[in-house]
Amino acid sequence: MTLTDAELDRYARHIVLPQVGGMGQRRLKEARIAVVGAGGIGSAVIPALAGAGIGRLTIIDSDVVELANLHRQPLYRERDSGYSKADLALQFVHRLNRFVEALPVQVRIGPDNAGALIEDHDLVIDGSDNFATRLAVSDACVSLGIPLLSAAAVQFQGQVGLFRSRPCYRCFVGDAFDADDCDNCAELGVLDALTASVGSFAALVAINMIIGIGDDQTGKLQLFDGERLSWRVIKIPPDPKCRACGG
């Protein structure tokens, strides 16, 4: 896949980096990424990936914009209240970068449709706000052999982890959170800059993975403390009894 003259100009600050170059930028153009959730995390992930020149972005979100979203979701404005997040995110991508193909999917993702929605992608980035959705997405990624980059933020705590089938996200959280009524940021609250920080970090991990920059982050969970302003990394071991990837 070649880069046009306009793309060479647009991504010049990428291409001049020795770690990226023309080959790295072509890898970004070839990449197909599904983003689950166009909320706080997605509002940082989507602009970063579109700006980087990801070839195809599928944006999966069934929600509409509410005023309570706006403090942490700068993709949207007050006048967007009541409109589809996926559609508005698509419009944002098209305004930002005409070379990125974007597809809005306005359905709720779950165990029955996750596989069909994420197949034919190179990476899934999950920024949804509840465990039931996250586990459904993770199980589908394991089944299809698609890498999953999970990013979450609540109150002052953030986390980003890359999973490639084993260990999987279910190895990390177990089977106790499949119910739809698990806590999310609507009940617990979240600091606006935290979602931006975590989402931007997730986009960086994704870009590095696609190009092949740095060490492999598979099975590592990056934890961010927004009060102490510190990061730490833990290794997630595979669970031999995991119902998704075990055995």
How does this structure look, described?
This protein is an alpha/beta fold and 247 residues long. It has one domain (12-235): 3-Layer(aba) Sandwich (Rossmann fold), CATH 3.40.50. It has ten helices and eight strands. α5 (85-96) links the parallel β2 and β3 (101-105). α4 (42-52) packs parallel to α5 and α4 (42-52) packs parallel to α10.
When the domains are counted, the total is 1
The Rg value, from CA coordinates, equals: 17 Å
**E-strand count:** 8
User: How would the global form be characterised?
Assistant: globular
pLDDT averaged residue by residue:
95
For the biggest β-sheet, the strand order reads 3-2-1-4-5-6-7-8
> Stretches where pLDDT falls below 50 for ≥5 residues?
none
SSE arrangement, N to C: HHHEHEHEHEHEEHHHEE
Helix content: 25-40%
How many strands, what sense, and barrel or not for the largest sheet? Answer: 8 strands, mixed
* N/C terminus separation: 39 Å
The CATH fourth-level homologous superfamily: NAD(P)-binding Rossmann-like Domain
Short structural summary:
With 247 residues, the chain is of the alpha/beta class. The chain has helices spanning 5-10, 12-15, 21-30, 42-52, 85-96, 114-118, 131-144, 169-173, 185-188, 192-211; strands at 32-36, 56-60, 101-105, 123-126, 148-154, 157-163, 220-225, 230-235. It has ten helices and eight strands.
